[in-house]
Known about the structure:
It is a single chain. The chain is mostly helical. It has one domain (14-95). Helices cover 44% and strands 10% of the residues. It has five helices and three strands. It has helices spanning 20-26, 31-39, 57-64, 77-83, 85-95, and strands spanning 17-18, 47-49, 52-56. Strands 1-3-2 form a three-stranded antiparallel beta sheet. A hairpin with a 2-residue loop joins strand 2 and strand 3. Helix 1 (20-26) crosses helix 2 (31-39). The chain is globular.
Amino acid sequence: xxxxxxxxxxxxxxxxxxxxxxxxxxxxxxxxxxxxxxxxxxxxxxxxxxxxxxxxxxxxxxxxxxxxxxxxxxxxxxxxxxxxxxxxxxxxxxxx
Length: 96
């Protein structure tokens, strides 16, 4: 169940990464409308931050302004290294 917009405390400054509820409240729409906009690619895809879907607010603003090139969030270099083939080969070489 989602939180009602009127019950959601919005900080004086929009956080760098927002949840769907906070992002929806910032746009004065429901969380369901937020989800539909993401599905229709009217908003950028979520980034997983600590296992939770989050949207970089600058990317949301860029998409709404029509600048969809900006909206790609750079890949986390730590996570990229974990899935890199070279890293996996080195780990398997150590085990042998």
